[in-house]
């Protein structure tokens, strides 16, 4: 991150009425939650997404997929938001509207206190029926059964409330998210490889609508060629520095 890039980014944000922040797995990395595509500790380096993150994989082995998500959910529940999540909350003091569109399913932005959070890949904290789609309740007492719990309405399995490969994203959330990006003056993209569609479209959509695109990532990504400003570094370090620079520019 160069001082010049930082000041340019802060000035764009300080002048925005609507700032949209689009976050991916890198946003949660410093909270202790692994990313997907990191060559060493990414989830897809150890697990096959076709077996664990598709409806077909769930139907082939419901107990295994359920157990994998329960393991991740409990790990996520034990993690806490970091200084970068807090910095995005503080931005709300200096920008009239800040909306967070996240691909993350961990709920950390809400736990940090962000007001407007749109979860485009769902949430690991919710469950719904595999067949009738009815929202379900996860039984919180210890169960002996390895199989997933059952839907109270139709008796089919409950599944994690996340978006798997080949599935549509939640329609109303997508409509609101895309409308926000069309309206924003600045899109701040944090910690995503930009490989997964349709989330990967957001920086392109912002550019088409004359918004400034600012990226925060320790490594160049698919987003970098689309970004006006690339702030190279970790979310937990860059975002607090950026927010202090915005506050300075706003004189607050
Ligand atoms: C840091 C950091 C630090 C590290 N600070 N940064 C068009 C073209 C090609 C393919 C498709 C297309 N349209 C649809 C597809 C298929 C597919 C897709 O995109 N595939 C690609 C992989 C090629 N998309 C879909 O299937 C989507 N559905 C859909 O399009 O429906 C319409 C349709 C239906 C039927 C047929 C066709 C179309 C659904 C996508 C669902 C994604 N689901 C997952 C799993 C969620 C549940 C779970 O967690 O198990 O979502 S996959 C996984 O990837 C997860 C993430 O949200 C998503 C994105 O990953 P993300 O966040 O970018 O993480 P990484 O690991 O890739 O990157 C981390 C980044 O952080 C890196 O850049 C690091 O450098 C950085 N970083 N430390 C800041 N400290
Ligand atoms: Zn059902």
How many domains?
2
Q: SSE order, as H and E?
A: HEHHHHHHEHEEEEHEHEEH
Low-confidence stretches: none
* Widest β-sheet, arrangement of strands: 3-2-1-7-8-9
- In percent terms, what proportion of residues is strand? 15-25%
Major sheet summary line: 6 strands, parallel
Structural Rg: 19 Å
Q: In CATH, what is the homologous superfamily of the largest domain?
A: TPP-binding domain
- Tell me the name of the CATH class of the largest domain: Alpha Beta
Overall number of strands = 9
Tell the overall outline.
elongated
Bound molecules: ligand BJW, zinc ion
Which structural category fits the helices and strands? alpha/beta
The CATH architecture designation of the largest domain is 3-Layer(aba) Sandwich
CATH topology of the largest domain: Rossmann fold
Give the helix proportion (percent range): 25-40%
Written overview of the protein:
- With 252 residues, the chain is α/β, with parallel strands linked by helices.
- The protein has two domains: 3-31 and 80-121 and 167-250, TPP-binding domain (Rossmann fold, 3-Layer(aba) Sandwich), CATH 3.40.50; 42-77 and 128-162, SIR2/SIRT2 'Small Domain' (2-Layer Sandwich).
- Helix content is 38%, strand content 18%.
- It contains eleven helices and nine strands.
- It has helices at 3-14, 26-29, 43-46, 49-52, 55-60, 62-77, 83-91, 108-112, 171-183, 202-208, 235-250, and strands at residues 18-23, 97-102, 116-119, 122-129, 135-136, 158-162, 186-190, 212-217, 229-232.
- The strands form two sheets. A six-stranded parallel beta sheet has the order 3-2-1-7-8-9, sandwiched between helices.
- A hairpin with a 5-residue loop joins strand 4 (122-129) and strand 5 (135-136).
- The two termini are 23 Å apart.
- The structure holds ligand BJW and zinc ion.
- Residues 24-26, 29-30, 35-37, 42, 53, 103, 105, 121, 162-168, 190-193, 195-198, 216-219, 221, 234-235 line the site of ligand BJW.
